[in-house]
Amino acid sequence: MGGRFWCPSRHGWVKFNVSGLANEDEVGCGGVLRDSDGVARALFSGPVTAKDSITAEVGVIIITLDVFLAMGWKGKRSLIIEI
């Protein structure tokens, strides 16, 4: 079976797996933030204002950074964003 599997980050890091997508008239994004033990620490999904999937992915990166900062992890953890 081919495909990609989630791999945990190193200790002291957190990983946000995110996606932005567009399908006809709908554009959305979502993401899950996991710590190095694989525990989900934050989830989000919903519509975004974008005209295509590339713009949606830029938007999801901005949302990801906002969530990371709101959780107070700046300076305490390093962040990986995986699209």
Top keywords for this entry?
83 residues, four-stranded mixed beta sheet, 4 strands, globular, RNase H type-1 domain-containing protein
Describe this structure in words.
This protein is an alpha+beta fold and 83 residues long. The chain has one domain (17-82). It is 22% helix and 40% strand. The chain contains one helix and four strands, in the order βββαβ. The protein has one helix spanning 53-70, and strands spanning 13-23, 26-34, 40-47, 78-82. Strands 3-2-1-4 form a four-stranded mixed beta sheet. Strand 2 (26-34) and strand 3 (40-47) form a beta hairpin. It is globular. This is RNase H type-1 domain-containing protein.
Structure in a nutshell:
This protein is of the alpha+beta class. The protein has one helix at residues 53-70, and strands spanning 13-23, 26-34, 40-47, 78-82.
Number of domains: 1
Give the overall form: globular
> How far is the N terminus from the C terminus?
21 Å
Tell me the strand order in the biggest sheet. 3-2-1-4
DSSP strand tally: 4
SSE-based structural type: alpha+beta
Radius of gyration: 13 Å
Helical proportion, percent range = 10-25%
Helix and strand element order = EEEHE
Low-confidence stretches: none
**Biggest beta-sheet profile:** 4 strands, mixed
Q: How much strand content do the residues show?
A: 35-45%
The total count of helices amounts to 1
The overall pLDDT, averaged over residues, is 89
Protein name: RNase H type-1 domain-containing protein
